[in-house]
Amino acid sequence: MPLIPRSSYYTKDYRQTAALIRARQPFLIKNIFTGLGIATFAISVYAFTIKAVAQDDFSDVQVPNAPEQPPHTPHTGVLKAPPEVAIEK
């Protein structure tokens, strides 16, 4: 057991104490506006990117024809006998 009790802004149930609520109160409005600013910036960058990419015109790019398929060859691999057919000596 420590000689000096641990000071905390939380109770034993991990709930905020009145002191923590008072300590955070001056920063609440600033934090809300900062969060809204960051979210607005991120959403606007995302929207601008989607809008810029949607304007791309690929009509000048030549798409090659599909390659010719080689003629189908029969299976020439070695087949194993099924397990129920056993070679007896």
Overview of the molecule:
The protein has 89 residues and is an all-alpha fold. Helix content is 38%, strand content 0%. It is flat. It has 2 helices and no strands. The longest helix has 27 residues.
In DSSP terms (H or I, runs of 4 or more residues), the helix count works out at: 2
Number of strands: 0
Major sheet attributes: none
Q: Distance between termini?
A: 80 Å
Strand content: under 5%
Q: Please state the oligomeric state of the protein chains shown.
A: single chain
Residue stretches low in confidence (pLDDT < 50, at least 5 long) are none
What is the averaged pLDDT score?
81
| Helix and strand run | HH
State Rg.
35 Å
Estimate the helix proportion, in percent.
25-40%
Structural class: mainly alpha
Give the overall silhouette: flat
What would the keywords be for this entry?
single chain; 89 residues; mainly alpha; 38% helix
Describe how the helices and strands are arranged:
Blueprint: H1 18-24, H2 28-54
Summarize the structure in short.
The chain has two helices and no strands. 38% of the residues lie in helices and 0% in strands.
